[in-house]
Specification:
five-stranded mixed beta sheet; oxidoreductase activity; Rossmann fold; 35% helix; Transketo_C/PFOR_II; Transketolase-like_Pyr-bd; four-stranded mixed beta sheet; oxidoreductase; THDP-binding; 2 domains; alpha/beta; globular
Length: 327
């Protein structure tokens, strides 16, 4: 299998191209996704290849984008609408929770919605208000939606193809902070990465560190730094927020007895709380220390002058791991 060295945003484009080339029912839609190739150029070249019928520039109307995609999916197409920033998804929230998430249940399985709602999420790029939120848990609460967040180019293409082929709707959130931060080997051919399975990025015995998306990189850096202090940490990349891979979480925790969760979303009600509850319910007798959460603060996301203080840094992750290990 031949491979290419791609960034995450290039892997998004490659995944879209692969599926559009294989399946005529797959189409892309959103603001500026056509001739301009999208605000981050994730759809660059697709309009030239597939034309207006399958790469559709829409008005600036997120409710209309999502609602139109729902109708297309109900009639057998496989739309992949893009919302330019995840903070712009809120006008489409009614369509997402009232229709997109409920269609299979509402029709008692007669109709499914094979659609993928893509959106770059997260901070760190010095953007204005409404461009930097990490609100994945809004969508994880909705039965009927899958929520996927990749952290590597390989996973990005494989998970996106899996999402497009899924008969049910998927929220595919892309960590824009690391869109072009590094490259990785990505097969040129089609392949899938299963939705609902976490990945152990580094094995260890002293503490389990759970993270996802853009926070995977500072977490791995922190863990490497702590090797010098004799701390052997395991890093688990969650990858799918819903359905959550509880089995991998519990198995890792049973091995180490200590846990740290790292995410940039606010601490209150974040995925760290769900992972902590899972550990309490399924592995309490293995616990050696309180679960430590290293997260964003429970405040509105700050503008660029303060966002470096808001986002979990390598130093904050290191301190969280030390607290869990030294308890």
């Amino acid at each position: 299998m031949s491979s290419q060295n791609l960034t995450i945003v290039q892997a998004v484009r490659d995944g879209l191209y692969t599926e559009m080339n294989l399946d005529d029912e797959v189409l892309v839609m959103g603001e500026d996704v056509g001739k301009n190739g999208g605000v981050f150029r994730a759809t660059e070249g697709l309009w030239d290849e597939f034309g207006d019928d399958r790469v559709i520039d829409t008005p600036l109307a997120e409710s209309g984008i999502v609602g139109t995609a729902v109708g297309m999916a109900a009639m057998g197409l496989k739309p992949v609408p893009e919302i330019q920033f995840s903070g712009f998804m809120y006008p489409g929230f009614d369509q997402i929770v009232s229709h997109m998430s409920r269609f299979r249940n509402r029709t008692r399985g007669r109709y499914t919605l094979p659609m993928v709602l893509r959106a770059p999420y997260g901070g760190g790029i010095r953007a204005p208000e409404s461009h930097s939120e990490s609100k994945e848990m809004f969508y994880a609460h909705e039965a009927g939606l899958k929520v996927v967040i990749p952290s590597t180019p390989y996973d990005t293409k494989g998970l996106l193809i899996s999402a497009i082929r899924d008969p049910d709707p998927v929220i595919f959130m892309e960590p824009k902070l690391i869109y072009r931060a590094f490259r990785g080997e990505v097969p040129e051919e089609e392949y899938t990465v299963p939705i609902g399975e976490a990945a152990v990025r580094r094995e260890g015995t002293d503490v389990s560190v759970f993270t996802f998306g853009a926070m995977t990189r500072p977490t791995l850096e922190a863990v490497e730094n702590l090797e010098a202090e004799g701390i052997d940490a395991e890093v688990v990349d969650i990858r799918t927020i819903s359905p959550l891979d509880r089995e991998t979480i519990v198995e890792s925790f049973k091995k180490t007895g200590r846990a740290v969760v790292v995410h940039e979303a606010p601490k209150n009600g974040g995925l760290g709380a769900e992972i902590t509850a899972t550990i309490q319910e399924e592995a309490l007798l293995y616990q050696e220390a309180p679960v430590k959460r290293v997260a964003g603060y429970d405040v509105p996301y700050p503008l660029y002058a303060l966002e470096d203080y808001y986002l979990p840094s390598v130093a904050r992750v290191e301190e969280g791991i030390r607290e869990a290990v030294n308890f």
